[in-house]
């Protein structure tokens, strides 16, 4: 997470590894697109919710793969979704909201 923040929305942050600011050698193959999803238990208590969010991260990022530079990226959940509004842990409404916000996140990403 020490790498730079590329863009953020109210619930998500996109981090990108930058070789220029790295102090040591990369622990992965450089020049290859890698994507990770971090959904802490702190912000999504139930495993069903964390898995739903991770699946949406991977699905939406596949749609935007052509816009991502070939370097590691991490999408991190940084805030909790309102439990009062999303009663079910894996409701269709939650899925739509997560997908919409992830689309916004990737649309905010600056062009390489």
Structural summary, described in words:
The protein has two helices and four strands. With 112 residues, the protein is an alpha+beta fold. It has a single domain, classed as Ribosomal Protein S5, domain 2 (2-Layer Sandwich). A four-stranded mixed sheet has the order 1-2-4-3, with helices on one face. It is elongated, with a radius of gyration of 15 Å.
Keywords:
single chain, 112 residues, alpha+beta, Ribosomal Protein S5, domain 2, four-stranded mixed sheet, 2 helices, 4 strands, 30% helix, elongated
In brief:
This protein is α+β, with helices and mostly antiparallel strands. The chain has helices at 47-63, 92-108, and strands at residues 4-8, 12-16, 34-38, 72-77.
Q: Which structural class matches the secondary elements?
A: alpha+beta
Percent of residues in helical segments? 25-40%
Total domains: 1
CATH architecture: 2-Layer Sandwich
Head-to-tail CA distance between termini: 20 Å
Helix-strand pattern, N to C? EEEHEH
- CATH topology-level fold name: Ribosomal Protein S5, domain 2
Shape: elongated
Integer-rounded radius of gyration: 15 Å
Adjacency order of strands in the biggest sheet: 1-2-4-3
Total helical segments? 2
The CATH class assignment is Alpha Beta
Spans of at least 5 consecutive residues whose pLDDT stays below 50 are none
